[in-house]
Specification:
301 residues, alpha/beta, Arc Repressor Mutant, subunit A, seven-stranded mixed beta sheet, LysR-type_TF_proteobact-type, transcription regulation, transcription
Length: 301
């Protein structure tokens, strides 16, 4: 057989032998390696031929290691164990450099993703995974932290306040121009796009009208379960959306949506960064967390 730098036989033969010696069974070794018992036998015969010695004693009910086989197995088992531990250390080190952050689809699209991109440009060695979903993040140990409106019900999670938003009706420019200065009664008569979310912390149209003193009927003509979809419908002139001014600032600045004054309400809850405590976060996760907080304070998001 050809030799390489360490004068070793092919690693496939060593791997087949190690598995067969550990199980003392060609059949079990074949199952572990996802090959046939004949393939394992062929590899071991090739290794024995290369070494010029028998490694197994074939018996009617199985196999046993010869003295040379025991010596080779002890060396391989020890070496493979060290290699395995080294690989685990390398994988763990790589995992430390990965951060996972969650948010709703709207938060991801409107400001979290741009913020993460800016972070990546400054720290390209850190891999950031984003998870976006419009339902609460429950039982997700793979997430370092997530952005949430209102406090999470899990008191064990760390809560870092980000900002408090303002709630105002928004619509496409044509509808907003028509309703400029409209009364609450006029707004209630419009097609209102309602967000139907599992997360009950989000302020609804009825709650918004009630807080402003309106006690009339609030029709429910249109429901969606995604705030991103609600915003897209409003852009197309399909109705009014309860707008979170800071959250949708990019769409307001671009003119895709326009706030309808003068009615405005301070949101009852804040947006929070929720997740593991700082001491349980990796260095990379703490760096991203600090980045997001600083961007909020600077007004970038």
């Amino acid at each position: 057989m050809s030799r390489r730098h360490y004068n070793l036989p092919p690693l496939t033969t060593l791997s087949a032998f190690e598995a067969a010696a550990r199980h003392l069974s060609f059949k079990n070794a074949a199952e572990e390696l996802s090959v046939t018992p004949g393939a394992v036998s062929h590899q071991i015969k090739a290794l024995e031929g290369d070494l010029g010695t028998a490694l197994f004693q074939r018996k009617h009910r199985g196999v046993e290691l010869t003295e040379d086989g025991k010596a080779l197995y002890d060396a391989l088992a020890s070496s493979f164990t060290r290699i395995s531990k080294t690989l685990a250390t390398i994988r763990d080190r790589a995992t430390v450099e990965k951060v996972t952050v969650g948010s709703t689809t709207a938060v991801a699209a409107l400001w979290l993703s741009p913020s993460v991109i800016r972070f990546w440009r400054e720290m390209p060695e850190v891999n950031v995974d984003q998870l976006s979903q419009d339902r609460p993040f429950r039982d997700r140990p793979d997430i370092d932290f997530f952005i949430r409106y209102g406090r999470d019900g899990n008191g064990d999670l760390s809560h870092t306040p980000l900002f408090r938003d303002c709630l105002v009706p928004v619509a496409c420019p044509e509808v907003a121009d028509r309703l400029a200065g409209a009364s609450l009664e006029d707004l209630a008569a419009e097609r209102l796009i309602h967000l139907d979310s599992e997360d009950r912390s989000w302020t609804t149209w009825p709650e918004w009208f009630q807080q402003l003193g309106y006690t009339g009927t609030i029709p429910i003509d249109s429901r969606v379960n995604s705030y991103s979809v609600a915003l897209q419908r409003a852009r197309k002139g399909a109705g009014l959306v309860l707008g979170w001014q800071r959250l949708i600032q990019p769409m307001l600045q671009s003119g895709k949506l326009v706030a309808i004054g003068p009615h405005l309400q301070i949101a009852p809850n804040k947006f929070y960064l929720v997740g593991r405590s700082d001491e349980d976060l990796s260095e990379s996760a703490r760096a991203l967390k600090d980045w997001i907080i600083q961007e909020v304070q600077d007004g970038s998001v």
